[in-house]
Amino acid sequence: MSGEMFGDEVDIKARLRAAEVMYKKFHRLISDVIKGRPPKLEIPKRTLSNTIFDPERGILVIGEEKLEREFLNVGESRRFMQTLLMASIIYQSLIENEYPTIRDLYYKGKHTIVYRDYTGRKREENTWDEQKESDSVIQDIEVYTGLFREDMLILSKEKGKVVGNMRIRSGGDVIDLSKLGHGAYAIEPTPDLIEFLDVDAEFVLVVEKDAVFQQLHRAGFWKKYKALLVTGSGQPDRATRRFVRRLHEELNLPVYIITDSDPYGWYIYSVYKVGSITLSYESERLATPKAKFLGVQMTDIFGYRGKKPYLSEAERKKFMIKATDKDVKRAKELLNYSWIGKNRRWNVEIRLFLKHLVKLEIEAIASKGLKFFAHQYIPEKIETGDWID
Amino acid sequence: MSGEMFGDEVDIKARLRAAEVMYKKFHRLISDVIKGRPPKLEIPKRTLSNTIFDPERGILVIGEEKLEREFLNVGESRRFMQTLLMASIIYQSLIENEYPTIRDLYYKGKHTIVYRDYTGRKREENTWDEQKESDSVIQDIEVYTGLFREDMLILSKEKGKVVGNMRIRSGGDVIDLSKLGHGAYAIEPTPDLIEFLDVDAEFVLVVEKDAVFQQLHRAGFWKKYKALLVTGSGQPDRATRRFVRRLHEELNLPVYIITDSDPYGWYIYSVYKVGSITLSYESERLATPKAKFLGVQMTDIFGYRGKKPYLSEAERKKFMIKATDKDVKRAKELLNYSWIGKNRRWNVEIRLFLKHLVKLEIEAIASKGLKFFAHQYIPEKIETGDWID
C-alpha cells in the first residue's frame, strides 16, 4: 500500500513520540504486577478545587492534588479498567495509523462485558454508556501522560481560520497564508505539527465571528496593517487556541481580540486568555495570557472619563440590544473570576453593562461602515493602546 | 488610499455588474412616477404554494405567481418602502465598496421614522424590528432582481472546506487545493467569483461532518481515489452548496454524499440535492439534483435482499442508537417529499428505519477502522454503484 494511506512523515514521527510516552507511562503497571504490587494509577485531579489561577503566568493551571486509581479496589476498579481500555485503544490507533475522533474512541471501546459473579450468576456490564464517560477517561489519560489528545493524533471538528503575511509548513506542504484569495486557511486539528517558516506581521487580530473575519479579510485589513487575521467562529476550539498561543509565544506578536460587547463575548475572550475553567490542564499550552481585549468595549459605546464614545446618541439607540437576565447573571459570574474582578478596567466595563443593561454586537460597529471599522476603529485603538489587558 | 482597501479587481467587476442590474430594475419606479403611474413592484412569490418540484431538472423552483407591491396601497406601502430602503442600502454598499453581512444590513436600515398623521398627531414607526423582517426583504430583492445576495457582495459566515487535486483562482491568487498540508481551503462567501483552473479528480465526495472530513483528508483518501473532498460542517451554507453545484456542473464530476444514517442526515442530503423548501428560488443555482446518497444507508447496516450488511450483529448492537419520536416524525415528513417518497430505494431506507427504529452515525463506520471506512466502504460502494439517486 502506498505511503499516502498512512499519513505523512510529520504524522509518523508524532505517532512514534506519543506511542513511546504511552508505553513508558503504562508499562509501570506491568512491573507492579510482576513485583506483586497492586497496580495503581496516580492521576492529577481535574476538579475545580485543584484548578488554580497562577497570577504570575496569568493562566489557570492544574494543582498538585492527585487521585489514585487502584485495580484492587471495588470503588475504583471500573474507572481503572476504563482507563486501561481507552489507553490500549489509543495506543493501537497510534501504531495502526488510525486517526480516531473522540466519538470514534467512544464507539471503539463501547461493548458489554458478560461475566459470572461470585455466586455464579450471569451479569452484564457496559464499558461505558455515554460519550461523556469516555471523554472523561481520555482527559485522565491526557493529564496522566502529559500528552494532549492532538499529540496522540486524535482528530476533531475544526472551525479556526487564518490569513496573513506568513508562510507555514504543514504535512510536508508549504502554504502561503497571504495567497488564499477570498478564502482562508482552515487550521488543522494538530496545530503543534505546523512549522512557522517566515512571517511579516506586527500583530495577531482574533475576531470572534466568522462573518466579521470575512469582511476584514475582504477589505484588505491584514495587508494594510500587517496583521495575522484569525477567527475561531464563536467559542474557539482547542486547535485555534493553540495556534494563537503559538503565534504569540514563538513569533512574539501581540494578540488583540475582538468580540461582541456582552458577557458571552467576554467569556470567549477569557477562554483565549486564561483557558476554560473545566479543562484547566489544557491552559498550559492553549491559553494566551497576554491576549488583549481590544473591543467592543462598553466604553467604546458610552465613553468614559476622557474617552470619547465611538457611537452617537442616535447610533446607540439604533444598535443597542437589551440585556437578558442570563446576561446579567453571567456578567456577575465573570466578576468572580479574579483575572476579571480584580482588573480595574474590567470593573468599569461590567459596571457600565450592569448600569445600562444593554449589549452590542461587533456587526453594529461594522454597520457604521466597514471603512470605519477596519480603518479607524481597530487601528486607532491599537495605536492609542485602548485595550484591556 | 491603496487599492487593497477596496477589494480586488474581481470584486470591483462583480460590484459594477450587480449595481447595473439593480439600477435597471429599480429605475423603472422613477419612470412610473414621472409618467404619473403609481409605483409598483412585481415580485415572484416565495410561498410554499409557489414552490414547485421540477421533476425534469430534479430541483425545487419558484413558480409563476407574483405579488404586487404598490406604494399607494395602505396594506403594501410599508413593505414597499422597506424594499426600497433595503435596495438603496445595498446599492450604496456596492458603490462604496462595502462588504455588508445580512446582520449589518439589518443594523444599517434600522431606524425610527417620526411623522405626523392626518390628524396632526405625532407617530413613530420602525423601519423594521427584527432581522427576520430585513432578511425577508433581502430575499424579495433577490427574487426581484435575479441577483443572489452573494452577487451583491453581501458576505456571511462560512463553514465549507475543500481539498483535492485542483487549482483555483480566487481574488487574483492561484490556490493549489492539493498543497494545503493537514489544513484545508475555507470556501469563500462568494463562490461564483472562483475560477476553476485545472482539475485532476474523478468525483466529489461531500461528507456531512467536519471531523470525518479531517479523518479522510489525513488518511490521504482524496489523493488515492482522485476525489475532491468537501465538507459543509453539518447543514451546509449557501456557498458550500453553490461550490458543490459548480463542481458538478462545470467539471462534470459525479457528487457523492455521506451523512449520518438518520432523518437529519437525510435532510442534509436533500438540501444539497434539491434545495431547502423555504428558499426554493435559490435551488436553481445551489442545488445539485444529480447528487447521489452514498451512505450511511440503512441497508449498509441491515443488508437487503442480495446485499450483505457491512456490520455484524455484534457491531449493530454496539453502534446503533435508538431513534427518538422527533426522528420518526421527521422520517415520515421526508416520505412526503416526492423526490424521496416516490423513490423505491428511499422507501426501503425509511421503511427499514421505521421497522428497527434505530439510527447510526458516520463515526460508527469510521470506528470500525479508518482503513475500512476510507479504503473499503467508500470505494466499494462507488465501484459497485451502491448509492441512492
User: Structural class, from secondary structure content of chain A?
Assistant: alpha+beta
Q: Kindly state the mean pLDDT of chain A as a whole number?
A: 92
- Give the CA-CA distance, first to last residue of chain A: 53 Å
Strand residues, percent of chain A: 15-25%
Catalogue the unreliable spans of chain A. 1-5
Oligomer: homodimer
Write down the CATH topology of the largest domain in chain A.
Dna Topoisomerase Vi A Subunit, Chain: A, domain 2
Question: Which protein chains are joined by the largest interface, and how many residues does each one contribute?
Answer: A-B, 75 and 75 residues
CATH architecture of the largest domain in chain A: 3-Layer(aba) Sandwich
> In the CATH hierarchy, what is the class of the largest domain in chain A?
Alpha Beta
The number of strands of chain A is 17
The helical percent of chain A reads 40-55%
H/I helix tally of chain A:
16
* Most strands sheet of chain A: 6 strands, mixed
Rg of chain A (C-alpha, Å): 24 Å
User: Can you tell me the number of structural domains of chain A?
Assistant: 2
What general outline of chain A do the C-alpha atoms trace? globular
